[in-house]
């Protein structure tokens, strides 16, 4: 029988219940963790492998085991609208069609890096949906919500979180969206 993602990660890293290791997360992530229903583990990583492709190479895990958080913004009538889009690593957020329509904006684009880091209180390469500002919508691709085990950002480059898609979808205000992302390739 094939090993689970958790079993494979446990062979390389020390997984701990995230609630017992707030020092391994951004402060906002650690604070917001109690809003997640379900088990959430955290594990230390070398910050050099924080980017998804590097982590997957280092762990020999497939892209469908990791979800990326993409911050997208647009405005309508002078009102800015921001969303955190959670998509599997083997997909790309459909920013120009699906996200733009969901935000009800004329043009949607990625939130500038410096602004994303400053507003989230998280490090680039570690941004995740848990602990983002309350005015950010959290849009979760249905494939992410259906996953048994997912690796996501902890808010810092030196660790990652492991949880189920349903736990992620339990975030207050999270919206599960069909076809939020397109397959890559």
What can be said about this structure in brief?
The chain is α+β, with helices and mostly antiparallel strands and 185 residues long. It contains seven helices and eleven strands. The strands form three sheets. A five-stranded mixed beta sheet has the order 6-3-4-7-10. It has a four-stranded antiparallel beta sheet with strand order 1-2-9-8.
Give the proportion of residues in helices.
10-25%
Please provide the ordered H/E string of secondary-structure elements: HEHEHEEEHEHEHEEHEE
Low-confidence sequence ranges? none
Radius of gyration: 15 Å
Enumerate how many helices there are, as a single number. 7
Largest sheet: 5 strands, mixed
Secondary-structure content class: alpha+beta
Report mean pLDDT, rounded to a whole number: 95
- Oligomer classification: single chain
Strands in their spatial order, largest beta sheet: 6-3-4-7-10
Protein name: YbaK/aminoacyl-tRNA synthetase-associated domain-containing protein
InterPro entries: YbaK/aa-tRNA-synt-asso_dom_sf, YbaK/aa-tRNA-synth-assoc-dom
Pfam family, one: tRNA_edit
Organism: Brevibacterium sediminis
